[in-house]
Each structure stands twice: as structure tokens, then as C-alpha cells.
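User: My collaborator sent over this chain with a note saying "see what the structure looks like." That's all I know about it. Can you take a look?
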Amino acid sequence: MKKMISLTYLFGVVFLLASALYFFASNWQVFSRLEKVTLAGSVIILFYGAAFLLDRVLKGAHFLSNWLMVSGVISFGLSVALLGQLYNSHADSYLLFLIWAIPAFLFSLYTRYSGFYVLTHILIHLTIYFYLFPSSPFAHWTLNHTWIAFVVGIVNTLLFLIIKKGYIHSKPLLYLSLISANLLLMVTAFDNEYSVFFTLFYLLTLALGVYRYFQKETSIFIILSIFGTGFIIIKMFELMAQNMSSLFFVGLLVAAILLLAGSVFLVNYLRKHSSSHHWTKAVFVASVTTIASVFIIASVFGLLSLLMVDVSMVTLFVFATVFLVVPSTLSNWPSPVKYSLMMTGIVIGMIASTFDEFSFVMFFVLAYVFYVEKRFAARFVFYVLFQLNTAIFLGQTLDLGTHALLVVMVLMNVAVFLLLNKKHVIQYGAFLIGFFAFFSLTAIDLSLTLHIVYTALFFLTATGCVYFFKKQDRTLYWVSSLVFWFMLIVQLYYDLAWKLVHKSLLFAVLCLLFFIVAVYLDRKVGHDTRSHSLLAGKRMGIVLIICLQAVWIGYQVYSNETLLQNGETILLELQPVDPRSLLQGDYVELNYTISELQEPSIEDNGPITIVLRKNTQGIHEYSGVYRFNENWNTPYEKKPGDVLLNGKVTSYWDNTVQVVYGIEHFFIPEGTGLDVEGKVKSAEVIVSDKGDGILERLLD
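Assistant: Without extra context I'll predict from the sequence alone. Here is the result:
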């Protein structure tokens, strides 16, 4: 019951944070700028104040005050995002996440609480992500970005090793650093002049990790295997795009054969000399099977397409089933060979049956495999393929639309889930596929009524499953349900069926209901005295960090309001588009006439200040005078009416440089993008004496 109570508190906190995020992102025009800042400050005070209060009142529920402290840092980030929205700074700027990460980092050092470790890690990587991929139409990947990703990947690897040594105690951070390291090192290995070096480095790192943790930690080995399998397959497709030749596909087939031969030797060796866990061997076989199957399938279809062999789909289907699937099910071949041929045959057969629309025949093939194959892991994979074939069959024969097809998939998997016992692996497959199909119903384009019905049903189902499986201590099920629950919260942010402000109010009501239920149960059951408070003995230091956040917000408001009151107003020509920010809601993305400068002398990225002068129509235009990297292109003395505007050169080509001024985004109330897009022709910008600009409004 105590786990149920803590889960209910968690839902309440999440709903409160989501309510604040949705409300600020809606950019509701009822409130003025200063009133919105006051509201944001009130949310921060609410979380931190509640954390301090509940730490004293609920002595046995310190987990709640700890969560509220983390939520306080999250609300600070929402306030930083709100300031960017109010003063039209860059949407999803890496500076937003960098500033947000500072108090999270200070709290993690001071309290050593796992929640702050995780939050800091996420925010730092969001900072890096939006630095490498800014939400700008002019951003592009460079070799410098590749090296940054490589260095951050190495840092994550070192962080992983530090945690393994016990210097930092945080299991979530351990896995976050491991996953981040693999993702970043994978990114460096594609599409650059040093990709061979990065590829070899990542493969070496991966091999060392697999060797180190093969017999010691199953979870880490599984993660490394997944990344290794994915990397090899993606690399294969990259090489295939560069080398579309019969020689390449023959080599791919030979590579698959060598891989299977090596895996057979290794499996036999492990069977005789190793005491490794059953799961590690199963994962190894699954990885080899996946890689070998993809290699063989790619080589078969590649050779057929290059040699222009006129093979009917029926012939290909017969070949796949008779010469690959059936022999592999009847033989006692080593597992890697057996399952690689079986999967290759099934996938080729499914592709062939899909092209010639006889997918119903695949049901007999899959039924035969189900009957012969007894291993649960293999049956799980075949069940997923069975569901995929069902979707293809229904789409071909009954011509079902997306809506009807998803409903059928949900009902079918619910039936399978209820018919099987809880220890059956296929039950979990039905659970995942059914839930995913159900989630898809909340995201597709339907009428408002149906959308609300499916969203409400999904929310109730996911919430109920979390509680039900948590009570039964079925970890895999309740964690999966919780993931789908959070997926719905995120998906609703980008959903346009109903307003963000309305969803904000709904979340506020749900927050209140969940807190009422949690408090009632807490009083009825009693407190868990084993909970530890991160505030214990550290209140003064924590208060100091909170004060630093308040000072920063106050300074930003003061400096921006001062610029708006004292700066010089200019008009610039523009062209808008209409996306949605990660945290700040809808905005129009502006491309000014001064965003592209014809300056062949600039051949590098860096800070630039341009001189603007007003034309006869009252629009400020580029005068041809600029200062780049602190050097003027021509001797310059400021004339009456001249306005200096600071920017940054982000790219250059064909005697043209692209400049970003930090005024490219204008935040608008939700749903008003079409009213703005294509109708506005100029922007009113207020520029300070130092050349910093704030976008004030758009003009028709």
C-alpha cells in the first residue's frame, strides 16, 4: 500500500508540473508580462515552500519533499523558458538549458540526491543537443559538431566508469551515462572524413564493454548488445548506399556466413567453459540472428535488383519457406544458424506475400513455426511478426482505414492477453502491441469527440495498469505502463485537438484529485519512517541556491524591461513559419532580409555587428558596413540614425553569409499561427546602445 501512496503522490506532482508547463506554453494573453513573471515565481515558491513545509509536517514521507525539491528546479527551468517566450528570445536555446542545469548541478553536488544527478545529466545533454541542432532553419552539422559529440561521448564513458567504481551512487545515472555514451559515439561514426577512425574507436570500445560485462552484469550487456546490433545494421545501410554493386552484396553474404561460423564457435565455447547467465547467451544469439538475417536479406534483394533477375514473388516465397524456414525448424543446427535462417526465410516470405497480396498464406507459415518452436524468446518475436502480418492482411483484404485497423489490433491483443497466463512471454507481447496500438489511437487524426474518448480511456487504462501491476509486483508490466502514461502526457503537448490552456486546467484538477487521494491514504495507512530527507542539515545551503535562482530571474526581467523602455525602435522585413517549441509553445520563425549578407570577404563563423540605416519606407536596411571578429570592413564613425545590431555568422557559401541575431523567434498565443503566417511583412525590434535586440511585435 505504501508503494501505491508514493505512486499517487508522484502522479500528483507530475500533473502539477504539466499544468504549469502547458499554461505557460499556451501564451495566454489575459496576463501582462510582469503578471506572467509573477505567476512563474509563485510556482517556484509553491514547490520549494511545499518541500520545506512537508519535510516538517510529513516526517515519514520525505520522498515527497525530495520530489518537490526536484520539481522546484524544474519549475525554475519553466520560468527561464517563460522569460524567453515573453521577450522573444531564441526558441529552445541551448542557453535556456545551460542556465537551468546550473542550480540542478549545484543541488546534485550539495545533496548527492539521485534525482538531481539525473536532472543535471538530462539538462546538460539537452544543452549540447540544442547547441548542435539549434531550432533554426540555418543550422547544419559540421566536423566541429562531430568532435564535440565525440568528446561528450568519452565524458559519458568516464562518468559510467566512475559510477561503477562507487564514487557516485545513482543507478539511473549509470544507465543514462551508458546510453548517452553509446548514442554519441555512434553519431560520430557516420558521414564525416574521420568516420573510419570513429567507427573503429566505437567498435573497440563496444568490444571491450561486451567482454567486460558479458558474464558479470546482464543489464549492461543487453544494452551494449542492442547498440552494437543497431550500429552494425545502420553502418551496413550506409555502406550499401555508397557501394551499390554486386561485389558488395556478395561480400555482405560472405560476412553473414563468417559471422554465423564465428558465433557457432563462441556458443560452443561458452557452453563448455562459461557459467554465464542464460539471458546473456540468449541476447548474444538474438544479436547475431538479427545482424546475419539483415545481411542475408539485403544481399538477396540487392543481387536480384542489380542482376535484374525476373523472379516472381510466389517463387521467392516458396524458396524462403521450403529451403529456409522448414529446414531450420526441423534441424538441430546451432542456435545462431538455425534462427538466422528461420528469420531470413520468414521476413523474405512476408515481403514477397505483401507485394503480391497473398499475406494470408503467411499465417500458415507462422502457425507452423509456433507449433514447432518451443523457446519463449523466439515465440515472442514470431508473435510480433504475426501481428504485423495481421495488420498487412487486414489492410489488403478488408481495406480497413487506420482507425478501424488500430481498433482491431487493440481488441485482438486484449483477447490474447486475457487468454494466456501471466507467465507466458506472448502475453507481454500482446500487452506491448495492444498498448502501442491504443496509444496510436490518441495520436491519429480523428473527430474531437473520438479523440477525447480515446485519450480518456487510454489515460484510465494506463493509470489502472500502473497501480494493478505495481500491486502484483510485476515490474516489467508496471514500468511499461508508466512509460506509456508519460508518453501520453508528452503527446498531448503537441496535440492540436484542444487548447493547451484547457489541458492545463484539466491537469490542475487531476493534480488536486490525486493529492487528495494520496493524503487520505497516507493518513489511513501511516508514514514510512525509512524515508530519508535531502533537506536534513542542509537547509541554509539549499536556500542560498534558491536565492541565486531568484536573483537571476530578477536580473533578466530588469535588464529586458530596461532595454524595452530605453532602446531604439527599428523595422525589419521578414518571412515567417509556424512550429511549436519544446517548452515555450507556438512561435513564428522569422527570416529577415538582413539574415543573408552578400559578403565574400567573410569565410568563417563568428560574432558580427552590422550597421543599419532607415530607407524611404521607414525600414532599416543593411548599410554594407560591418564589424566581424572586432574588425570593421571599412573605417567607420557612427552617423545620426545609424543603428548597430549584434549577430553571429552561422554559415557561409557562394559569397553569402547567414547571420542569426537572436530575434528570429516570435512567440504567439496557441493556434494563431495561421493568422500570422503570410500576413506580416515587418518586425518591430528594439535595440540597445550595445547592439542587443529584442523583438517587440510583428506588423502587417
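A starting point for your reply to your collaborator: The longest helix spans residues 278-307.
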